[in-house]
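Subject: for your reference before the review

Hello V.,

The reviewers asked for a structural picture of the protein, and I figured it would be easier to keep everything in one thread rather than splitting it across files. Below is the amino acid sequence we used in the manuscript, unchanged from the supplementary table.
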Amino acid sequence: MTGGARGIGLATSRALIARGASVAIVDLDAAAAERAAAHVHDARALGLAADVVANAGTTSRVATFRAISSESFERVLKCSPFDRERAPR
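And here is what came back from the structure prediction:
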């Protein structure tokens, strides 16, 4: 569950565990991911740190359009489902 250390991601992880699933809680903050996993379930939840760029057009860190680096913007474009050159066919 990306962004699973808090908010909607954490709530979704809890709901999945309640339904019998095992979850990997992924967040930029390793300690927060590990704490969330320990809180959700002692055996069926794993906390991991990762920098994930979402297809929704978000960057890995909060930034306004003017403040985003060209490298970060390029990463977003590379994973966009609207990128006709790189999108799976």
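For the response letter, the relevant points are probably these. Residues 1-52 form one domain. The CA atoms of residues 55 and 80 lie 5 Å apart.

Happy to draft the paragraph if you're swamped.

O.
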